[in-house]
Amino acid sequence: MPAPIALITGASRGLGREVARRLVEEGFTVLAGVRDPARMKPLPGAEVQPLDMCDPTSIAAAAAAILARHGRLDVLVNNAGILLDQMGEVLTLDPAVLRRTLETNALGPLALSQALTPLMPKGGRIVNVSSGGGQLSVPSNWAPAYCISKTALNAITVQLAAALKPRGIAVNAVCPGWVRTDMGGPEAPRSLQQGADSILWLVLKAGPEISGGFWRDGQRIDW
Hints:
The chain is an alpha/beta fold. Helix content is about 40%, strand content about 15%.
């Protein structure tokens, strides 16, 4: 049986790199989506896939390359994201910062999913890496552009799950928690491995019927 094929975006560092590394260990054919391949440290066993989430031409080229090389895609982990407004409040939020954040954190995953779902067979999985900051049930007022973008990503997750249910493709969002990465910083309480575990549960362990949910550590959480 051929190895499942997974694309992980934002795989040059942090959670994306750790998820890619561990999927290689699990026997996946791993495509490491990175904006600048020249700056990426070697990731043994993974194929580097140039991919700019904000560039429709780059997304189309990635989809064409995956189709030509592999003919299908079994797993998409939309991990790439930016955090531009660690401080501040919504009343002083620069609209340009919000637009740029939404473009990367929400519109990019949507555009990539639209381009790649034609390559996904029944049983395929899309995992959108979100954040507790995007929860409406527990409103957050830190980094408003980031939190708003993750709320939007959660809404996109629900829409994609409904649209892809007839094809048997599961779509979920995951909160890896506050993780010690370049984005999370050294004070974060969770290790890189713990954050990756939360993502990998949806890739490796969740049943194929699980779709349209928001998850942390294998447990469903409120939107």
